[in-house]
């Protein structure tokens, strides 16, 4: 389905924040905001749901800890319980202090790496990915707010100019 | 201005009165002769107090029988003497552990306060008066610890074996250490540490109050410089203090990271007390500008320093366990054999509990959650001090009974009384701190 969006350009993050609040108050749906740097409070102003990535990280950490314990219990205790320098390899608990450094590192390794991969998957980032930027300026000094147009072009334009937009672009057949 | 509520004041007096009663009973019940000591051990054995303690005494008895069979009467008498000293030490050690625990809270808060000043933290100036209130306990608490040390030097108890000239005469290891571990130098060092800490505390408080009334920032800048200087002094003296006051109850044992370990314990207990008193004062409406974010920051510190403490605990334990050198490992052997529950219990209380409860960002803003975790952390760090002092002073004759609980009650009452009385002396919000506006607007 062909859709039309309007791109409103801003040159200041404070103006952008006010604009977002105004557009939200006028009950328009903001498709996307492109910024050159993180703007504090923008997600709140747009009403985005909080991220759950920390929760996934916790679960990955638990997984890493389990992997470490199962691995070392199998190798050092169950499979071939050798006497190495008098270490008590009769049970996992008896020799546990020696395993803690690995348990810790595996927890951190799993938590960190799997969380990063989760982030890449969820935000659709990979090498050779085609950039989704509407305008190179949004990586330097301009902010772009993208709003879908439904037969209300004139009204939207007026509202956006009112919020301090420095430039408006109508894009037909976006996506 | 804060007004000391009557209920809290009376509560602190009741705690002190009950505490003195418990401590007094502890001293009265301590045995005077070998026969009394034997009767106490036999009674404890027969009743079988239950749990770990019952097994401990059984263990002691079998060891005694085995030893007696092997070495005859002479060794038996020496063993009885040893048990007598342990039982006589118990009320002393109980008082010492509690006195040091509450003193170390005040000292930990002082270190945190100096860090906040030296780092020019923007979030914490709103809490400076709370911290200054807590560090007021440094003066009476430090004096009490010092008096206990002086009484030990005067041979009122047997907590520090190296203070006993007879023991040193038969112990080459202690003779070699006597250049450092001798009673006079010991007391001089203690006085020097306490003098330095108390001086910084009083002077910084004075500058902090003067800054409220002044029309430039000179007091603030002076306080910054003194705080930075204090931190250097503190790092050195805190480490030496931990060798002197705690490690030297086990004079044959040594550990290099012990000073850090004690520091982590006092730092986390101090921060926990700051958080708890801040939440209390806020709930009474005295700190209107303190918001969730301040509590969140304090809870983050509680969480992070709990993990830091565990890191050091494990760093010390694992290195000694791994290498298993007999002269070092006895320290943990006695603790694992005779103190299994407190030794591993404190690990759960000081690590697993705060790790799981304070990991969630939202929970760090829930006041009752922070207070509940704080109570567990404080109990855990009391046990930590208990585990450091008791095995060397009372050995397997330990029990958390009247003298221990009485000492906790007495010193908590004294702590509450001193801290909250100090809080009434100055407005709870600094007026002219350059960062106070940032702190008021602090939002995370």
From TrEMBL, chain A:
The chain crosses the membrane at residues 53-78, 98-121. The lineage of its organism: Bacteria, Pseudomonadati, Bacteroidota, Flavobacteriia, Flavobacteriales. It comes from Poritiphilus flavus. Keywords: Membrane, Transmembrane, Transmembrane helix. It comes from the Bacteria. This is DUF3341 domain-containing protein.
TrEMBL record, chain B:
The keyword Transcription does not apply. The keyword ATP-binding does not apply. It comes from the Bacteria. This is Quinol:cytochrome C oxidoreductase. The chain crosses the membrane at residues 12-30, 93-115, 136-160, 180-200, 226-246, 258-281, 301-321, 341-359, 366-383, 398-420. Keywords: Membrane, Transmembrane, Transmembrane helix. It comes from Poritiphilus flavus.
């Amino acid at each position: 389905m062909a859709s039309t969006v309007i791109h409103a350009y801003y040159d200041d993050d404070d103006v952008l924040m006010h604009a977002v609040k105004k557009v939200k108050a006028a009950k328009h749906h903001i498709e996307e905001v492109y910024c050159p740097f993180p703007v504090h409070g923008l997600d709140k102003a747009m009403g985005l749901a909080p991220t759950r990535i920390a929760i996934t990280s916790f679960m990955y950490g638990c997984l890493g800890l389990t992997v470490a314990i199962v691995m070392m219990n199998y190798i050092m205790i169950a499979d071939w319980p050798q006497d190495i320098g008098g270490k008590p390899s009769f049970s996992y608990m008896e020799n546990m202090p020696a395993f803690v450094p690995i348990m810790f590192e595996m927890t951190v390794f799993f938590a960190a790496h799997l969380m990063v991969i989760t982030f890449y998957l969820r935000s659709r980032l990979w090498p050779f990915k085609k950039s989704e930027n509407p305008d190179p300026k949004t990586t330097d000094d301009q902010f772009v707010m993208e709003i879908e147009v439904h037969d209300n072009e004139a009204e939207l334009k007026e509202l956006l100019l009112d919020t301090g937009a420095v430039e408006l672009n109508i894009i037909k057949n976006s996506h | 201005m804060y007004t000391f509520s009557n209920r809290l004041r009376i509560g602190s007096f009741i705690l002190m009165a009950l505490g003195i009663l418990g401590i007094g009973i502890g001293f009265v019940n301590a045995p005077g002769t070998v026969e009394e000591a034997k009767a106490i051990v036999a009674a404890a054995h027969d009743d079988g107090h239950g749990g770990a303690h019952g097994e401990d005494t059984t263990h002691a008895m079998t060891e005694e029988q085995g030893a007696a069979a092997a070495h005859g009467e002479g060794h038996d008498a020496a063993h009885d003497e040893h048990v007598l000293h342990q039982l006589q030490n118990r009320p002393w050690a109980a008082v010492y552990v509690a006195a040091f625990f509450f003193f170390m809270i005040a000292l930990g808060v002082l270190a945190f306060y100096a860090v906040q000043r030296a780092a020019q933290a923007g979030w914490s100036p709103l809490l400076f008066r709370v911290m200054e209130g807590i560090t007021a306990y440094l003066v009476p608490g430090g004096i009490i610890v010092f008096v206990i040390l002086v009484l030990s030097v005067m041979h009122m108890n047997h907590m520090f074996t190296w203070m006993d000239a007879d023991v040193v005469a038969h112990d080459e290891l202690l003779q070699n250490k006597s250049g450092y571990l001798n009673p006079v130098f010991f007391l001089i060092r203690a006085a020097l540490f306490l003098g330095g800490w108390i001086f910084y505390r009083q002077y910084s408080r004075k500058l902090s109050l003067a800054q409220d009334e002044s029309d430039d920032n000179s007091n603030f800048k002076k306080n910054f410089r003194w705080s930075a200087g204090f931190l250097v002094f503190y790092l050195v003296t805190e480490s030496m203090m931990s060798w002197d006051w705690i490690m030297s109850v086990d004079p044959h044992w040594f550990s290099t990271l012990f000073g850090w370990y004690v520091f982590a314990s006092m730092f986390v207990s101090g921060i926990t007390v700051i958080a708890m008193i801040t939440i209390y004062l806020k709930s009474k409406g005295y700190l209107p500008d303190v918001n969730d974010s301040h509590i969140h920051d304090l809870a983050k510190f509680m969480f992070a320093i709990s993990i830091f403490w565990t890191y050091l605990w494990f760093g010390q334990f694992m290195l000694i366990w791994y290498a298993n050198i007999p002269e070092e490992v006895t320290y943990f052997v006695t603790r694992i054999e005779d103190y299994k529950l407190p030794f591993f219990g404190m690990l759960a209380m000081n690590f697993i509990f705060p790790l799981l409860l304070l990991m969630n960002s939202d929970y760090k803003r829930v006041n009752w959650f922070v207070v509940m975790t704080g109570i567990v952390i404080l109990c855990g760090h009391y046990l930590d001090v208990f585990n450091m002092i008791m095995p060397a002073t009372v050995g397997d004759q330990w029990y958390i009974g009247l003298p221990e609980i009485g000492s906790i009650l007495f010193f908590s009452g004294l702590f509450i009384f001193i801290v909250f009385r100090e809080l009434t002396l100055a407005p709870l919000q600094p007026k002219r701190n350059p960062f106070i506006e940032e702190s008021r607007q602090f939002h995370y």
